[in-house]
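Work Package 4 report. The design task specified in the project plan requires that, given a folded chain encoded as structure tokens, an amino acid be chosen for each position. We show below one input record used in the internal validation round.
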């Protein structure tokens, strides 16, 4: 079979397989946009702003300065989760080139998957694997950040679901790697106590 024809058939098959997802995405989009309320706009815009890389990285920097060694070890773990998360997300954005719900089409800023959702969940999970008391608040905040992107018509529901899954996966990997075989790297240059496994509180 001609390679071009084979490739075309493959893409047609993929499109047919994901057609129900796309239909569901647009149905959710219509319901959410029809139900937007002025009172929720500040909350959703604020939540969306939390997911910006400058906010995330700036918060990590401040935490490391304020808490010293433990904060730096935590920041390294979070960065370890965020780096592969963003590599995968950006690769998928360029591969899929999905238009955003509001109609914008930019290859480097495509809709699928949501980087806000991916970063929010990577951060929440990597921070809370060994800190159960933080888990529910952090995960709820991550979910709010992700949902705000649907509410503000910047992403479809499947964008945030896949983004969240990517973030959770790399967040778990970073936390367990840092507490295991990567502990020496995480604690490099820090006081012995700061290099220990995060406390289970």
């Amino acid at each position: 079979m001609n390679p071009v024809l084979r490739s075309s058939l493959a893409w047609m098959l993929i499109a047919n397989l994901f057609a129900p997802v796309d239909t569901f995405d647009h149905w959710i989009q219509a319901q959410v946009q029809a139900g937007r309320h002025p009172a929720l706009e500040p909350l959703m815009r604020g939540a969306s702003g939390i997911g910006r890389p400058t906010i995330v990285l700036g918060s990590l920097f401040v935490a490391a300065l304020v808490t010293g060694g433990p904060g730096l070890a935590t920041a390294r773990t979070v960065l370890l989760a965020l780096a592969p998360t963003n590599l995968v997300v950006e690769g998928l954005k360029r591969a899929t080139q999905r238009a955003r719900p509001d109609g914008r089409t930019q290859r480097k800023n495509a809709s699928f998957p949501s980087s806000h959702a991916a970063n929010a969940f990577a951060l929440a999970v990597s921070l809370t694997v060994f800190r159960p008391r933080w888990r529910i608040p952090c995960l709820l905040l991550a979910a709010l950040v992700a949902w705000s992107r649907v509410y503000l018509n910047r992403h479809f529901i499947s964008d945030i679901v896949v983004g969240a899954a990517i973030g959770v996966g790399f967040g778990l990997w970073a936390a367990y790697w840092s507490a295991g075989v990567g502990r020496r790297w995480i604690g490099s240059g820090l006081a012995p106590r700061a290099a220990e496994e995060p406390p289970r509180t």
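Residues 130 and 199 are 6 Å apart (CA to CA). Validation will be extended to a larger panel in the next phase.
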